[in-house]
Amino acid sequence: MAMHSYPYIWNYLPLVLQVLAALGLALGMVGASFFIGKHKNSRTKAGAYECGMEPVGDARGRFTVRFYMVAMLFILFDVEAVFMLPWAVIFRRLPAITGSRMFGFYEMLVYLGFVAVGLFYVWKKGILDWANDKGDL
């Protein structure tokens, strides 16, 4: 049985072909849209689009710090949910991995305890209470 020797770089040929096909398809669709589509520029098309409503005021207005705090808290608790997913996927195999039947469960309870303490702190600081926010625009 004869083995054919070819350069190692040829292993990347399928990847290069796929990238070229994707670029060709994308450029083909944009080019077809450019040549076939109607182009009527108007003041309405050039204007800002705000969910179907006329934009009012300056877009660079100041926001209260509470807005950013809630955004950061949302990201924090969203990441917390992402950390729980791998634990939930391997939960049944945790006793074989750790050697203890309830170790994985107790570790998640500790983790959720830290998250609950953080949520309680934020709640007591009043960051989640939007009704008392006097620093709005």
From TrEMBL:
Alphabetical list of InterPro entries matching this protein: NAD(P)H_OxRDtase_bac/plastid, NADH_UbQ/plastoQ_OxRdtase_su3, NDAH_ubi_oxred_su3_sf
Cellular component terms (Gene Ontology): NADH dehydrogenase complex; plasma membrane
Signal peptide: none
Membrane topology designation: Multi-pass membrane protein
Record flagged with keyword Chloroplast: no
Pfam families per UniProt: Oxidored_q4
Keywords for this protein: Cell membrane, Membrane, NAD, Quinone, Translocase, Transmembrane, Transmembrane helix, Transport, Ubiquinone
Catalytic activity field: a quinone + NADH + 5 H(+)(in) = a quinol + NAD(+) + 4 H(+)(out)
Predominant location: membrane
Assembly, per entry: NDH-1 is composed of 14 different subunits. Subunits NuoA, H, J, K, L, M, N constitute the membrane sector of the complex.
Protein name: NADH-quinone oxidoreductase subunit A
Organism the protein comes from: Tunturiibacter lichenicola
